[in-house]
Amino acid sequence: MPQKRILIIDDDNRNIFALKAVLKAKGFDCLSATSAQEGFALMEQSDNVTIVLMDMMMPDMDGYQAIATMKKSAKMQNIPVLAVTAQAMVGDKERCLSAGASGYVSKPINVDELLIQIENFTS
User: Fold this and answer.
1) 3-class SS at 117?
2) What InterPro entries does its record include (predicted)?
3) Is residue 2 very low, low, confident or very high in pLDDT (cuts 50, 70, 90)?
4) What is the DSSP letter of 109?
5) Domain spanning 5-122: which superfamily?
């Protein structure tokens, strides 16, 4: 079975570092980008991104805009996106899902919950 490749898009390198450490320890291959545009470029170059972990609050293009852009792209529209956000208010999960995210994880990230969601969307 090919290794699952996860693309982490987050404007904070500390979040990327922490997520990569956890996911690599679990056997995942990880790519990372600090902006949505950088993430799109990586997806254009790489044919085997299995899932995207998308920070919803980024300065240039937020996760909502990024998901909308992905849904319009033939190459990216079928890649599941897990919304990762510090916004854990009532309605945020629904807002992320209605924007096109496949799943939702709030920060600080519960690793077990994250792994369950990754398995759900990549198996």
Assistant:
1) helix
2) CheY-like_superfamily, Sig_transdc_resp-reg_receiver
3) low
4) P
5) Response regulator (3.40.50.2300)
Beta carbons of 9 and 53 less than 8 angstroms apart: yes
**Would you list the DSSP string of 19-68?**
HHHHHHHTT-EEEEESSHHHHHHHHHH-S-EEEEEEES--SSS-HHHHHH
Crossing angle of helices 63-71 and 36-45, in 10° steps, is 30
Q: Which amino acid is at 97?
A: L
Residues above pLDDT 70, as percent of the chain = 98
Give the percent of the chain with pLDDT over 90.
Answer: 83
The whole-number average pLDDT for the span 74-94 is: 90
CA 80 – CA 69 distance, rounded (Å): 13
Residues 6+ apart with CB under 8 A from 5: 28, 29, 30, 31, 46, 48, 49, 50
* pLDDT at residue number 7: 98
As to burial, measured by CB atoms within 10 angstroms (0-12 exposed, 13-18 middle, 19+ buried), residue 1 is exposed
Average pLDDT score, the chain: 93
